[in-house]
Design brief:
Layout (H helix, E strand, L loop, with lengths): L2 H13 L11 H12 L1 H10 L12 H8 L3 H17 L4 H25 L5 H4 L3 H17 L4 H23 L5
Helix pairs in contact: 2-3, 2-5, 2-6, 5-6, 6-8, 8-9
Amino acid sequence: MALSEAKAIYRSKYWDVQRCDELPAGIDYAVFDYGVNSGVGRSGKVLRRVPGLDDASHVVTNAVIAAVNRREAAEVVAAICDERLTFLKRLKSWPVFGAGWGRRVSEVRSTALAMTKAGKARSTKAQIGTPGGIAAAGAAAAQQAHQSGAPPAAIIVIVLVAIVLAVVGWWWFRRKPEA
């Protein structure tokens, strides 16, 4: 899979579906990464639940955007990450993958909180995710594919795409900061 194809998938299936362009800086990244890791259904319901809306649906509506914008962004990020970690700890596979998942949530929290302070315009580097987070997402996706009975070739493709994205993420974060 070409990197451009992977980016298009992330954009259309995770970023755009969750209306991340309309969310405050930091919240956009926390919701996006949650959606990639655990599905947009779960992340959308959490995004609705945090500001006190009904979570019977996962759809990010205008009402969700408005409700989130009325809250302090750092508080929303913290609540999303807290709920995400609680969910992950309940999974049977937590003893095997918990250290990586916990590290990923911690990295997302840290990056997203920094984004809330910096503002959306200056935070595009942080939005792509940390290399460790990307690697953890790849591992989680490969594990999920394996558990669902996916053919070995599909699992290999998932792992290879995660490696490529992690290397690109590593390169991106090592670049000199933009002026």
